Amino acid sequence: MLDDGSFSIQQAEQVMKLGFIRSRRKMIWILMVFAVCLFGGCGQAAESGREDTGAREKSGMETESGVEEESETREEATRHTNPMDNDTLRDSIYRYYGRDAHEKIRKEEIEAVKGKLWANSVTIHDGEEFARLREWYNWDNVHSVIVYFSRDLQEWQEEDLLALKILHESVQVESDSGTFPVRALTYLTGAQEVYFSVDTDVTDVTGTLSEGEVFPRQIKSVALYDYREEKYHTLLGVLQDSRVEMLTVRPDWEAEDYQGFWLDEAAQIGTLKELVLNEVSIQVREEAALKGSALVRIEGCIDQDTDLCFVKELGQLEELNGCIVAERDLSPLLHRKGLSLYLDFCRQTTALEEEAYGSTTYTVCPEFNKAVSWPGGSGDEGFLGIYQRREEGDLVAECFTKKWISRETDEIYMYSFDPWIRVTAGASVYELSPGEEDGEFCFGDARSDRMRFEDINFDGVKDIVLEAGHFGSQGLLCEFGYLWDQASGRYVFSPTYSMISNPSIDPEHQLVRSSWRNWAASHSWAIYRYVDGKFVVQGILTEELLDEDDIPPELEVPEGAEVWRWREEIMEDGKVAEVRNSYAVSVEGEETVYPEAYESYYAEDSYWG
Fold first, then answer.
1. Which of 45, 237, 303, 540 is the most exposed place for a label (fewest CB within 10 A)?
2. pLDDT value of position 435
C-alpha cells in the first residue's frame, strides 16, 4: 500500500493471487475493497477536475494545464487567482483597455496590467481581498479608498493590516458592525485624510491605544459624517493626541433638530487649526477649556443658546464663518479685534421632503443692523443676507449683500442684489460697487460672495478680492479684483483681473494661473503676469482629443487610433509669438507613448504648474 492509502498495480496482482488460494468469499471481499479504493479515488479526481474546468470556463481567461501542490501559501494562492473573478479588478482592467464588458481580454493582456491599474475609488472589505488588489493596482493612481473593519478585525491578518501603509491621500473607514477597534487606525500610516461613516452607521471606535501606539502623525484632516451629539466620543478623545489640523463634521440628515457640537472637545486637539461644522451648531460647555487652543478658523451655525463671548478665549482665532439661525446679540463678534467675519443670515433648508425642499429661512437682527449701519429695510422690503468683515492693519473692509423674499404660488424664492463694499481707512470712508464698475461684469446666481484680502499684483500690499460668481454649465468662477492704488490711497477696480477664468494666485513665481474646460476632452491652462497696471496673458496650453480631420497628415496613425494634442501658445505683447505642438497616439491594447514634453506640462514645479 502506498503512503496515501491507495494500491499500486503490483500490490493489486498479489492480492488477487492470494484470493484464489483462499476461499472464494474472501476473494470477492478483497476485490470489492480494491474497487472502492481504485474507482472511488478516480471518481473524486474526475469530479474535482470538472469543477476546476468549470471555474476556468466561467472566468473567461485562458489557463495552462499543470499540477499544483496540495498546500499553498496564501500569497501563492492569491497569485493563482483569476483577477477577472473580482468585480473591482475586472472593471479596472476593462477601463484600462477602454473596452466594453462583452469584449474578450486575453490572458497575456491581463498579466500585462499587473501593478498598473488605476481607479478613482476602490473598496476593500477584508484582508484577503486587499491581498488580491494590492498586486494589481498602481496605488499612486488610486485617488480614494473605502476600507471595512469588523468589530474584532477577524477578517484581517497582521500582514494585510501592515500593508495598509500603501494607501495614501483619502481613506474612508467603514464598518458593518457600527464600530471597530481603534488600533485599526494606527495602520493607516500613508493616508493624508480619513473619513468616517458615509454609507454605513459607524458610531464610534472601541478600545484604547496601547502603549507605543499613536494615531498616524501624517493624517492632517479628519471628517465625521452622520454626526449626532455625543457620537464619536471615544474617537475625539483619541484625536486629542493626534496631529490633525482640520476637522469636518457633517450632520445626520435624518435628525429632526439641529445637531450641536461641543467646541470644548475639538479645542483639546492641540494641533487643530480649522473646524468646519456643516449645518451643525457651535456649543460650548466651559469657556476656560478653550484657552490655549490653536484654532484659527471656525465655521458653523450660531444660535441663541451659544454665548459668543467664547471668541475671547480663542487667542489664535482669525476667522469665524457663521450661519445665524435666530435673532440674538452678535456684538461680541464685532468687538473682537482682528476677527474676520462671514455671517449668513439666510439659510437654505436641507430637508428632502417635497413641501420643504428648496425653501428658505432668514434671520433679522435689528441691533446688529444698527451696529454695522445697515441702510436697508427688513422682511419683504429686503434684509441683510450676508455680512463680511476683514481687517488689514488700519483698513477695514465690510461687504453687504442685500436679499429679499418673493412668495409666488405658495413657494419661496430668494433674490439677491449686487453687494457693495465699504472701506474704512481712518477718517476716510468710501464704497466699492461690484457690478456697477463695468457693464461686462456681473454676479451669477450660484455664488457665496466671498471677500478676502490678497496681494494679487505682487506689490507687497494686499488687495480686495470678491467672488463674482459661477457661470455656464462648467461653473466657471470669476472674481472682482480691487488693487491698492498708492497715489490715491484707495482701492481701484481691475477689469483685466476680473476677466481671468478660475484665477489662482502663485506668489512664488508672481503669476496668476488660470484653467478652464473647453469640452469633455479638451482643457486649457493660461498664465498671466501683471505688467504696467494690467494682467497680461503670457501663454496658453490646450490639451485636446483631435477629430479625424484635424490629425496632421505627417503623423502615422493606425486606423481607429486616437490622437491627443498639446498646443503651447507663447505670447508677446498680447499676441501669439510661437506655437509648439506635441502629440500622443493611443492604440487600443497598446500602452500609449507620450511626448517628451508631457512631464513638463503636469510636473508640480513646471512652467505650467
1. 45
2. 65
Q: How far apart are CA 471 and CA 446, in angstroms?
A: 8
Contact criterion met (CB below 8 Å) for 423 and 429: yes
User: To which H or E segment does residue 516 belong?
Assistant: strand 511-519
Note whether 122 and 133 are within 8 A (CB): yes
237 bridge partner residues: none
The yes-or-no verdict on residue 38 having pLDDT over 70 is no
CA 407/CA 25 separation, integer angstroms: 104
The sign of the torsion formed by the CA atoms of 8, 13, 16, 18 equals negative
Listed in sequence order, the residues at least 6 apart from 32 whose beta carbon sits closer than 8 Å to its beta carbon are none
3-state secondary structure of 464: strand
Question: What pLDDT shows up at residue 377?
Answer: 57
Residue 87 zone, left/alpha/beta (φ > 0; ψ -120 to 50; rest): alpha
Burial-class residue 401 by CB neighbours within 10 Å (0-12, 13-18, 19+).
Answer: buried
What average pLDDT does the segment 437-459 reach? 71
What is the rounded distance in angstroms from the CA atom of residue 190 to the CA atom of residue 206? 22
Q: Measure the CA–CA gap between 373 and 275, rounded to whole angstroms.
A: 30
Distance of alpha carbon 257 from alpha carbon 302, whole angstroms: 14
The burial of 393, by beta-carbon neighbours within 10 Å (0-12 exposed, 13-18 middle, 19 or more buried), is given as exposed
Please write the tens of the pLDDT for every residue from 177-227: 889 999 999 999 999 999 998 777 788 999 999 888 999 999 999 999 989
Chain centroid offset of residue 2 CA: 62
Q: Tell me, what's the pLDDT at 76?
A: 54
- Would you list the DSSP string of 234-278? HHHHHHTTS---EEEEEE-TT-SS-EEEEHHHHHTSTT--EEEEE
For residues 382 and 405, what is the distance between their CA atoms, to the nearest angstrom? 7
User: What's this model's pTM, rounded to 2 decimal places?
Assistant: 0.78
- Residue 216 and residue 186 in contact, taking contact as beta carbons nearer than 8 Å: yes
Task: Measure Cα distances from 342 to 285, 291, 318, 504, 529 in Å.
Answer: 24, 23, 11, 22, 31
Rounded to a whole number of angstroms, the distance between the first and last alpha carbons of the chain is: 75
Taken as a whole, the chain contains a residue count of: 609
3-state secondary structure of 41: helix
Are 215 and 241 in contact, with CB atoms under 8 Å apart? yes
Cα within 13 Å of Cα(324), Cβ side: 24
Q: Which residue shows C-alpha cell 479645542?
A: 267
Rounded CA-CA distance 77/68 in Å is 10
Mean pLDDT, the chain, as a whole number?
A: 82
Listed residue (249, 206, 193, 244) closest to 226, CA to CA: 249
Q: What is the pLDDT of residues 262-304, one digit of tens each?
A: 999 899 999 999 999 998 999 999 999 999 999 999 999 988 8
Residue burial 198-207, b: 16+ Cβ < 10 Å; e: rest: eebebbbbbe
Q: Give the Cα separation of 411 and 84 in Å (integer).
A: 52
pLDDT over 60 (residue 424) = yes
C-alpha 60/C-alpha 104 separation (Å) is: 8
Q: What is the C-alpha radius of gyration for the chain, rounded to an integer number of angstroms?
A: 34
Residue linked to cell 488693487: 483
Calpha distance 11→7 (Å, rounded): 6
